[in-house]
Amino acid sequence: MAPGSPPGRILLVEEADDKHVVRHLCNARPDIPDFEIADKTGLPALVRAIGPEIKAPGRLAVGILADANDNPQARWQSIAGRLRGAGLEPPPSMTQTGTIVEGKPRAGIWLMPDNDSPGELENFVAGLIAAEDPVWPLASAYIESIPDTARKFKPGKILKARLHAWLAARAEPRKMGGAIGAGDLDATAPAAEELCDWLRQLFR
After folding, report:
1. Co-location of 143 and 43 in the same domain
2. Residues near 183 by Cβ (< 8 Å), separated by ≥ 6?
3. DSSP 150
4. pTM value surpassing 0.90
5. What is the CATH number for 193?
6. CB-based burial, 75-95: b 16+ in 10 Å, e otherwise
7. Which of 52, 160, 152 lies closest to 113 in space, CA to CA?
8. Which distant-in-sequence residues (6+ apart) come within 8 Å of 74 by Cβ?
9. Residue 35: which of 82, 89, 96, 105 has the closest Cα?
10. Same-domain pairing of 17 and 57
């Protein structure tokens, strides 16, 4: 690759946490081709970047990973519209295993947590906690026990608060990506395998 040229394969993400989670999931999977991860520091900047990144010279594949938040369909339409504006033809609705649009370049869309449900990165990461984990119900009970008048988080962020309470109870508390790398979270859980399968197909 010539100095200053863009990477052939790039994944656009909203925040640094997304970048670290994806990178740690890929570290143990040598069969996933190399790709760059670009943290766009927020959804508006990510959406604005889609067209220019698609049209950058030398692109082979562009992935877009974003939170579904409260309205997965609206988020899908926003991102799919940007792909159409760049000359690609995404399907009319998202695919639960992650959408891939064949073209030049190939493009992909993954909406956290599962390409269907409302939610965000933390919902996906919570799915990497072992089903029999003894601390998860305790972390959940702790968050639920906080009176509404004392809560500093929004009602829709309860699961996020539960997850971070659980992370704080590790022997060495880490952020989400670091917890995957340390083995506190199961990088082979079905949710992780589905995301990595999408990355393999997109960046093949």
Report:
1. no
2. none
3. G
4. yes
5. 3.40.50
6. bbeebbebbeebebebeeebe
7. 160
8. none
9. 105
10. yes
Residue 24 and residue 106 in one domain: yes
| 83 and 99 fall within a common domain | yes
Supply 163's token pair. 């997850």
Whether residues 140 and 54 fall in one domain = no
E runs forming strands in the chain: 9-13, 36-39, 61-67, 99-101, 106-112
Yes or no: say if 79 and 47 are a contact pair by the CB < 8 Å rule. Answer: yes
Q: How many CA atoms lie within 13 A of 9 on its CB side?
A: 11
Same domain, 99 and 161: no
Burial 164-176 (b: 16+ CB within 10 A, else e): bbbbeeeeeebeb
Give the range of the structural domain holding residue 42, as residue numbers without chain letter.
9-118+187-199
C-beta separation of 111 from 12 below 8 A: no
Q: What's the pLDDT at 4?
A: 46
Measured at the CA of 90, the angle between CA 21 and CA 48, to 5 degrees, comes to 60
Instruction: Return per-residue pLDDT of the chain as tens, 204 residues.
Output: 434 445 799 999 999 999 999 999 999 888 999 999 999 999 999 999 999 999 999 999 999 999 999 999 999 999 999 999 999 999 999 999 999 999 999 999 999 999 999 999 999 999 999 999 999 999 999 999 998 888 887 878 899 999 999 999 999 999 999 999 999 999 999 999 999 999 999 999
